[in-house]
Model the fold of this input.
Amino acid sequence: MNFPSRRSFLRASLAGATAIALPAALRGAAQNSSFPRPDGHHVPPWRLPVAGSAHIRMGTAALQVDFGPGKLAVPQPEIVDWVRRAAEALVTYYGTYPVPAARIYVQPAPGNGVFDGTTWGDVGGVPAFTRIQLGEQTTLAELQDDWMMTHEMVHYALPSLPDDQHWLEEGLAVYVEPIARVQAGQLDQASVWRDMMRDMPKGQPRPGEGGLDVTHTWGRTYWGGAGFCLLADVTLRRQTGNRSGLQQGLRALVGSGQSIALNRDILPTLQLCDHATGTSVLTTLYQSMREQPAPIDFDGLWRQLGVSLQGDTVQYQDAAPLAAVRRAIFTRPA
Done:
């Protein structure tokens, strides 16, 4: 049984450490994009049973939150607020909600925490559909600290790309999610720099690996893609004197009607962003990193940005050459 392409979470948290190894049953579910019924047949996630629903308005966008059968420790209104906060972070970053309608299916599962989020475009009658599992014993504090719902929603704002460019889909979600939450007042900026400095090197090419279109390991897909986005953002802001950054290019992309509901190639997508910023930064950077390994000098980048770690504490150097760029990345546009 074949289903539309999907974007799945398979990376370590920006606030966490190691990658999560999915149980065999969940790995099979992710690979098949469907779930078994008692009669042995499989159904796609957007056709799973619904025990209750709630609705959220984000400007002109309509979000439907559906709950699968099962009991959750957190009351449903708090879960709806969790989804709402993610949507508010998205609107803060993109200036609007990127799709006119979305459906989020919350599936109760054993244990604690939020996991196995997967997002599809143009399925089940909506432009964007997310199935996300929520542990039955998850506490309100754990839910309020979650980032995965925002990560999945960031996928809504980018067209579905060919498999070789899955790294941009995931890397962009890794990069934009914490910045959007900082701009929305939901997250501390210092924690994001701390996690970036720790985790960005996970995306560096290893000996024998190729460019981003060639090597599709977990590290290259998620953190390699995020490194591309960070480098693009810094380069854009440096070239334009902070007039434009990656955020402005992505806002233009959404403003042109692009979303996960559409299938697009990567070059026209990047060219649209470049046109909005009056540069060729994204297309040039892509050409330099698509086939060749192209490691990023993160140590030099942190020095230029004026950010460092003393133990677990983030230190800022305001006299650094790109200190203004560092500040602009997390500044909410007018």
Notes: Residues 33 and 44 are 6 Å apart (CA to CA). Residues 218-240 form the longest helix (23 residues). The two ends are 47 Å apart (CA to CA).
